[in-house]
Amino acid sequence: TTPRYIRVGDVVHIWANLLNINESGTQTSDLYITGLPFSPSFGAPIGTVMMHSITMTGGRGNLTLYTNGTGLYIYETISGADWNSIEWSKISDNDDIYLCGTYSVQ
Q1: Could you tell me if 4 and 14 are in contact, meaning their C-beta atoms sit under 8 angstroms apart?
Q2: 48 contacts: CB under 8 Å, gap ≥ 6
Q3: Is 90 strand, coil or helix?
Q4: Structure pTM?
Q5: Cβ neighbours of residue 100 closer than 8 Å, sequence gap 6 or more
């Protein structure tokens, strides 16, 4: 599905349905999403994520969309520990990710 955005002044609202994800080769790094329509002003949690068929381990809490000021990471909250960026190794072919967020471009 084509990602969408709306910019109102210095605020950008984004949403995307990443359907039937297919990886190429062996991925060993964090899942990092690029191609934002405008560069975020600063790093911050900006939205929420829903995932289908992606392997998660026990003790996980919410999923949060985070920008480092350039692209997007998906962070999971781990019970009794730090948060952690979702890694490519957790994703198999044909998994789905739905995301939405709002960020500043001041």
Answers
A1: yes
A2: 62, 63, 64, 65, 99, 100, 101
A3: helix
A4: 0.87
A5: 13, 14, 15, 16, 47, 48, 65
Dig out the tokens for 79 from the structure: 């019970």
Q: What does the pLDDT profile of the chain (106 residues) look like in tens digits?
A: 679 999 999 999 999 999 998 877 667 789 999 999 999 999 999 999 999 888 776 656 688 999 999 999 999 887 777 788 888 888 888 899 999 999 999 8
Residue 82 contacts residue 70 (beta carbons within 8 Å): no
Token digits of residue 11: 């605020």
Q: Which residue do the tokens 């044909």 mark?
A: 94
Long-range contacts of 54-62 (CB under 8 A, 24+ apart): 54/86, 54/90, 54/91, 54/92, 54/95, 54/97, 55/90, 55/91, 55/92, 56/90
Least Cα distance to 62 among 72, 76, 51 occurs for 76
**Helices vs. strands in the chain: H and E counts, helices first:** 0, 7
